[in-house]
Amino acid sequence: MRNHRDFLAVTDFSRDEVIETLALARELKERRNRHEEVRPLEGQVWGLIFHKASLRTRISFEVGIAELGGHALYITEKEIELGKRETISDAAQVLSRYLGGIMIRTFSHRDVEELAKHADIPVINGLTDYSHPCQIMADIQTVYEKLGRFDDFRITYVGDGNNITNSWIELAQRLNFELVIGTAEDTLPDMKLVDAANKLGNSRVIVEHDPVRAVKGSHVLYTDVWASMGQKDQADDKARKLRAFQLNEQLVSHADRNCIVLHCLPAERGKEITDGVMDGPHSVVFDQAENRLHAQKAIMTILMEKK
User: Boundaries of CATH 3.40.50.1370 in the chain?
Assistant: First the structure.
């Protein structure tokens, strides 16, 4: 019997829960800076399943779990091959007997949903090819810190319509802002998500194929690598299609004069973003990276409270 919550998509949280998570993330950040302990995971062991390697996801979750009083186990595909050596259902039920929670970073979003369906403990989506909800919670925390609001702003994402764009579209179903996706005609995000967000009417989601029009007047500019992990065979083709969407100084000049620049990292400098923008006065990418830690600590804390 399921008596817990999962975080597989931004839309797993209501608007109030998104705002609650942001408030808690800010509180946890402040308390960490004051060296105050907060230990809601005391005595718990969480499993971190990685089928995709990561610097930020692994370190931020391991540090976050430790700071919340728990212990993290790093589990690779050598230990758990979902649906291969045993069914996902069997693996989920076994892990539920050992662990307090699971974070999984893998390729297939359906595998994550299947794992969560059969687990009796909270499951967090640390990234799939379809979505990256933990990153987006860190993103909106950063936007709030820099702009002082999480509604009523214009954000432009330029580049490949990938898991980052899909999760930002999901966030648009919970908060109120204008999201512009500047991309080529055949590198689109999930257009069903776009339609769903626009039908809800909370936010306006626009797909724009002209990069200058896309960034015009935006308060937040965002980009990501053009070819994600597991898609490097498409790198040359995507670079050709997305060259005009490089986040460079000239493109940034068309945005709001006080805009901030986000990148979820790792960056391929000189491709989707120039050194001048990455290291420039508008960039807040390293504050954004730090906020992965605080946002994820908040997510884990809230999931444990809602068990």
Answer: 10-132+292-305, 135-288
Q: Which residue in the list 6, 12, 160, 224 is annotated as catalytic?
A: 224
288 has catalytic annotation: no
Q: Which residues pair with 7 in a beta bridge?
A: 124
Q: Which CATH superfamily is domain 10-132+292-305 in?
A: Aspartate/ornithine carbamoyltransferase (3.40.50.1370)
Catalytic residue among 51, 174, 292, 294: 292
| Active-site position among 51, 56, 105, 154 | 105
Nearest CA among 300, 257, 286, 218 for reference residue 55: 286
132 as an active site residue: the answer is yes
Q: Does residue 105 have an active-site annotation?
A: yes
pTM of the entire predicted model: 0.96
Active site residue 12: no
Domain 135-288 has CATH 3.40.50.720: no
Is 90 annotated as catalytic? no
Choosing from 135, 141, 246, 288, the catalytic residue is 135
For the question of residue 58 being annotated catalytic, the response is no
pLDDT in 10s for each residue of the chain, 307 residues: 568 999 999 999 999 999 999 999 999 999 999 999 999 999 999 999 999 999 999 999 999 999 999 999 999 998 888 878 899 999 999 999 999 999 999 999 999 999 999 999 999 999 999 999 999 999 999 999 999 999 999 999 999 999 999 999 999 999 999 999 999 999 999 999 999 999 998 899 999 999 999 999 999 999 999 987 667 778 899 999 999 999 999 999 999 999 999 999 999 999 999 999 999 999 999 999 999 999 999 999 999 997 6
